[in-house]
Amino acid sequence: MLPRYCRGKLRSAQLFSMSVLIVGGGCGGFTSALTLHRAGIPIQLITREKSFGSANARHVVVAGSAVRILDRLGIGTLFRSYGTPITHGTVENERGSKLFNLDVPRTVGECWVVPRPYLQQLFVEALPSNSVAFSTRLRAIHSHPNVDFVAAELTHSSELRRHGMYPASRSATSRIDANLVIGADGLASAVRGAISRPMLTTSYTSCWNAVAITSDTDKYPMHSFCEIWGSASPDVAESDRPRFGYVRTSKNAVAWRAVFPSTSVLRPFRSKLRDLFNKFPSRIQELLSRTSEREIFRRQLRTLWNDSSIWIDHDSYRIALVGEAGRAGELGTLHHGKCGTSTSLKANY
Ligand SMILES: Cc1cc2nc3c(=O)[nH]c(=O)nc-3n(C[C@H](O)[C@H](O)[C@H](O)COP(=O)(O)OP(=O)(O)OC[C@H]3O[C@@H](n4cnc5c(N)ncnc54)[C@H](O)[C@@H]3O)c2cc1C
Predict the structure, then answer these.
(1) What DSSP designation does 71 have?
(2) Domain span at residue 190?
(3) How many domains does the chain have?
(4) Is 207 in the pocket of ligand 1 (CB under 6 A)?
(5) Does one domain contain both 292 and 334?
(6) 75 and 26 in a common domain
(7) Among 11, 17, 264, 327, which has the highest number of CB atoms less than 10 A from its own CB?
(8) Ligand 1, from 62, 247, 344, 348: best to mutate by most atoms within 8 Å of Cβ?
(9) Between 333 and 77, the higher pLDDT residue
(10) Phi/psi at 203 (5° precision)
């Protein structure tokens, strides 16, 4: 159950007495944490988020063997009760003509869309109550080839939710010595800095996502997703073409995501998106008008320059990277990054 590269280095007696610090409360970190916990290995997970946010914040699509992993971890049934199944998909061009249909169960297997905070909450509830610390950020990490632990320096913000283990004073700092540190802290990983320094580049592509309130199931049917691919202009790479995708997440709500080659960071997003996607079918304008401006989130897509970066500390074998911390991330299509939630789940199991 430990990452394969660590197993040979540690005797089994050591495995069960070792302390594992996992940095990052995304799908990668939680999958690692629950997998190790189910194997009887004590873990401590820290994440800088003070909470997971509202259900509207972000939805993720979990498909195929990633769903079976949730079953094996014992949270599959609850996961399905929070999610909405997707059985059908359509890809269109910007004039609204169908490019192809996707029979989801046949091509990718069981597929669900779920609010990301709900998935994270499921993991937290399956872990021992004192093993997850919110509002706790990794500041620095120190390892030495001849010492059998890694020292992690942490900063705790005033919203610290951990019960009784660290002082709840404002911006307190502390140190944890762990036998193994798993860096699951995403694309801008602080743990990665202790192993290697690949270049993190910002792409010229922005991604916005939100949830629109609409019960119109003719335009936005249940259990299906739609992606609309704009035409790429000559000076823009094929992968940077504008895209808009949506999926119904409940009777009243449709989650959408827009990708556009733009570095525009200023609000109001809604009116800007209406301009950027004005050639797309009128369904898109309608979704935007049914979305509240303050519910729209924007992210600049970033990628690691060196995709084959090292993801294990070869001096000590006590620091490892998982999920997007160890892999370049970019959105190839709207629903699949190079890493992706499903990939992250599978890689960390
Ligand atoms: C806009 C967008 C939409 C996406 N939608 C989908 C989708 O629908 N389906 C899908 O499969 N994939 C999707 N992806 C990709 C997916 O979100 C990522 O691949 C996945 O979240 C990677 O998981 P992770 O655990 O490696 O990292 P993350 O989810 O990024 O988690 C990193 C965690 O580390 C914490 N952290 C960071 N630094 C520190 C620190 N110093 N100390 C403590 N904690 C720290 C962060 O707070 C965070 O909790 C999307 C990506 C983007 C950009």
Answers:
(1) H
(2) 4-54+120-199+306-348
(3) 2
(4) yes
(5) no
(6) no
(7) 327
(8) 344
(9) 77
(10) -85, 170
Q: Which atom number of ligand 1 is nearest to the Cα of residue 154?
A: 42
- Mean per-residue pLDDT over the chain, rounded: 84
> For the purposes of burial, counting CB atoms within 10 Å of the CB of 30, is it exposed (0-12), middle (13-18) or buried (19 or more)?
buried
318 and 233 fall within a common domain: no
Q: Is 335 in the pocket of ligand 1 (CB under 6 A)?
A: yes
**Could you tell me the two tokens for 137?**
């950020």
Q: What is the pLDDT of residues 199-248, one digit of tens each?
A: 677 777 889 999 999 999 999 999 999 999 998 666 666 666 899 999 99
161, 244: one domain: no
11 and 132 both lie in a single domain:
yes
Residues 192 and 233: beta-carbon distance below 8 Å = no
The CATH code of the domain that includes 188 is: 3.50.50.60
Q: Residue 324 C-alpha to ligand 1 middle, in angstroms?
A: 7
State whether 246 and 146 are in the same domain: no
